């Protein structure tokens, strides 16, 4: 019983997703109220009618509600983003208000990654989310729905998405080897090729399921934020989803296929020739997930969006994504990039992020949007008010630069002509003798300018990507060569990597890993050093990376947590602990200890300087219940927390860490706290810094 939709202020459905149970429930109730002989309308129309009172009341009330629970225990969470209202519903009791609010913010994040600064204009965003062509709308909604399904699956099963931090594969030698290969061979060859069509590879990374094997950024590249990287991992997993049943290979299975006995060392088979590897490189590239949201037995013929056959996109065509870029003169959010997702083998993916030739236009658009937004705020507060002192504007300098910008765009395009007309009206009102000057009457002109600037952005990077700009990307041949190069490099390691991703860190030392890895961390046994420790999660919030023992809950494999239901019980306890600590963190608590049956849980958040010295704790700001969720994917809570804490430590680099532990309840409390201190110091000491 789940539903999530986006609606306009006029109750028009801009996007919706719901599970089969919710659809059946709503149609049964709606069908009972229909007169005999009348057919059911489209499900989208049913939703519009059903939610219209909620949408209208939310937009008209001054102090509108953000959540409520109905008599049948259905939870509704609402959040208004500009002109769009997001509504999340749960009726099976499996999700709380915090979960629904997080889902809303994740959907908003994915829409920002897909549409960029068009999200700043409500009118243009409505056109993007609800295209007039039925097939285009069906394709877009199906893709957004599949992203939500993928995110939900990852959050329920993957610890990195539970705590919203990136997990690396722990094998320093192999990681270093891959990074060197990406830098000196792959990226260098791609950027020197004439087939790149003006694009420049900025970032290249290899994923094994959701874990990061190697990541390389060119010298000209900005730092890729944790929020953007997590969103890209969701998109990569959506394109090439992990099959948990097929990918869950036990160490014994790999040993048997390699022909090694219990005491023998693993010897990889010789690599095939380049011709052989390139011949099979397309095996996983054409595989696309099929997400079925409609049970074929349920008759919904009226809803054309769910019965329309949709052809999958060309895998060689990149997906346009909009990511944050940091430059010397400041941050530029939602800058256009091209994302290439190349499947090496099932479960192993190469991702390339490129800078497109017209990206300078996006930076100019953002600067002018920022300028007109500041001007609009100044006009609202009165010219010469306190806002002008905080953010002074040289409007004459803006006038000169805007004239040059419009001239560079050229008068041939219709969107440029619209911008020229609105800009002329703005100048006549602001600068001419007969104009109104700089007062509140100029506010509508500022709004029109921002809308037209977003229109230019949309023309260049969204609608343009479907026409002339579509040919400007890395050629299919160049992508195939890149794919073959990485396949050849990792051929001897692919089986190991797939198993390693399932057993990245374990509470005990497996003989299987001592055969494969040259890493000194293979000898670290947490159960021997910390008796009674069941599980832990450590997160470096400064870098957005985490480390935790693997949790295996399948029936095929056995771990130190047991098999099947036992491991699943521990996993549910860990997931519940994270939810609980987030609620306490939102209320200002940085330390939580609690006992739950046979287990004792601890959570600590602390700050250190660059030399590893623990800094004095500070009162953490209390957040309201309807505030953005604590995390790093949809809303980087820790980035703002670090900024808040750094105010009292100017000139110092402040780092933030989190530690969650699960112990057996029979262990004395003083021993548990001692374990936590020792575990934190052991994980971050230079010789065992697993996150670097």
Could you describe the 3D structure shown?
- With 692 residues, the protein is α+β, with helices and mostly antiparallel strands.
- The protein is built from 24 helices and 16 strands.
- The strands form 3 sheets. Strands 6-13-12-16-15-14 form a 6-stranded mixed sheet, with helices on both faces. A 5-stranded antiparallel sheet has the order 2-1-5-4-3, sandwiched between helices. A 5-stranded antiparallel sheet has the order 8-7-11-10-9, with helices on both faces.
- Strand 9 and strand 10 form a beta hairpin.
- Helix 16 (414-431) runs antiparallel to helix 17.
- The chain is globular, with a radius of gyration of 27 Å.
- The model is unreliable at 246-310, 384-391, 509-523 and 686-692 (pLDDT under 50).
- Secondary-structure class: alpha+beta
Strand order of the largest sheet: 6-13-12-16-15-14
* N-to-C span: 42 Å
- How many strands, what sense, and barrel or not for the largest sheet? 6 strands, mixed
List low-confidence stretches: 246-310, 384-391, 509-523, 686-692
Mean pLDDT: 82
Radius of gyration equals 27 Å
* SS field, number of helical segments: 24
Number of strands: 16
The amount of beta strand, in percent, is 15-25%
Helix content: 40-55%
Specify the overall morphology.
Answer: globular
């Amino acid at each position: 019983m789940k539903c999530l939709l986006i609606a306009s202020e006029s109750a028009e459905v801009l996007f919706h997703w719901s599970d089969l149970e919710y659809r059946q429930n709503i149609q049964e109730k709606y069908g009972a109220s229909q007169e005999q002989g009348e057919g059911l309308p489209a499900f989208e129309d049913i939703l519009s009618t059903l939610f219209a009172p909620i949408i209208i009341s939310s937009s008209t009330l001054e102090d509108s509600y953000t959540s409520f629970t109905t008599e049948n225990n259905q939870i509704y969470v609402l959040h208004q983003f500009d002109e769009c209202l997001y509504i999340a519903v749960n009726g099976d009791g499996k999700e709380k208000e915090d979960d629904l609010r997080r889902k809303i913010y994740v959907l908003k994040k994915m829409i920002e990654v897909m549409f960029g600064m068009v999200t700043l204009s409500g009118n243009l965003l409505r056109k993007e989310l609800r295209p007039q062509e039925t097939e285009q709308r069906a394709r877009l909604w199906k893709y957004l729905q599949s992203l939500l399904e993928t995110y939900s699956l990852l959050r329920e099963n993957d610890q990195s998405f539970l705590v919203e931090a990136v997990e690396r594969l722990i094998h320093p030698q192999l990681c270093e080897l891959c990074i060197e290969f990406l830098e000196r061979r792959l990226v260098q060859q791609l950027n020197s090729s004439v087939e790149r069509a003006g694009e420049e590879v900025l970032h290249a990374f290899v994923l094994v399921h959701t874990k990061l094997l190697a990541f390389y950024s060119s010298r000209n590249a900005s730092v890729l934020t944790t929020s953007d990287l997590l969103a890209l991992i969701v998109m990569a997993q959506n394109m090439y989803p992990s099959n948990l049943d097929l990918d869950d290979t036990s160490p014994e299975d790999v040993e048997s296929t390699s022909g090694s006995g219990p005491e023998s060392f693993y010897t990889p088979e010789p690599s095939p020739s380049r011709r052989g590897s390139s011949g099979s490189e397309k095996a996983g590239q054409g595989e696309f997930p099929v997400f079925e949201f409609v049970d074929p037995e349920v008759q919904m013929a009226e809803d054309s969006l769910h019965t329309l056959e949709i052809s999958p996109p060309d895998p060689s065509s990149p997906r346009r994504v909009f990511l944050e870029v940091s430059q010397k003169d400041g941050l530029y959010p939602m800058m256009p990039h091209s994302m290439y997702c190349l499947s090496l083998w099932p479960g192993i993916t190469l991702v390339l992020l490129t800078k497109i030739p017209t990206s300078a236009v996006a930076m100019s658009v953002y600067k002018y949007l920022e300028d007109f937004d500041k001007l609009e705020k100044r006009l609202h507060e009165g010219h010469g008010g306190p806002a002008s002192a905080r953010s002074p504007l040289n409007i004459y300098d803006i006038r000169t630069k805007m004239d040059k910008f419009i001239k560079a765009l050229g008068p041939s395009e219709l969107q440029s002509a619209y911008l020229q007309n609105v800009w002329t009206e703005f100048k006549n009102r602001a600068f001419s003798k007969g104009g109104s000057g700089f007062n509140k009457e100029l506010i509508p002109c500022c709004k029109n300018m921002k809308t037209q600037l977003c229109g230019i952005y949309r023309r260049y990077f969204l609608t343009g990507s479907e026409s002339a700009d579509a040919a400007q990307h890395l050629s299919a041949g160049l992508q195939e060569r890149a794919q073959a190069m990485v396949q050849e490099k990792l051929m001897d390691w692919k089986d190991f990597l797939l198993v390693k991703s399932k057993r990245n860190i374990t509470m005990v030392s497996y003989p299987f890993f001592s055969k494969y890895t040259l890493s000194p961390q293979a000898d670290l046994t947490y159960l021997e050093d910390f008796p009674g420790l069941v599980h832990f999660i450590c997160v470096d919030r400064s870098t957005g990376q985490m480390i935790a023992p693997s949790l295996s809950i399948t029936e095929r494999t056995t771990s130190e947590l047991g098999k099947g239901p036992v491991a699943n019980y521990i996993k549910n306890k860990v997931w519940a602990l994270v939810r609980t600590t987030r609620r306490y963190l939102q209320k200002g608590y940085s330390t939580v200890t609690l006992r739950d049956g046979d287990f004792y849980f601890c959570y600590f958040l602390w700050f250190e300087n660059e030399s590893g010295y623990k800094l004095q704790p500070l009162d953490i700001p209390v957040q309201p219940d309807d505030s953005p969720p604590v995390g790093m994917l949809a809303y980087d809570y820790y980035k703002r927390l670090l900024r808040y804490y750094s105010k009292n430590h100017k000139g110092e680099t402040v780092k933030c860490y989190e530690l969650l532990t699960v112990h057996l309840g029979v262990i004395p409390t003083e021993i548990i706290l001692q374990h936590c201190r020792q575990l934190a110091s052991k994980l971050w000491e230079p010789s065992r810094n697993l996150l670097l």
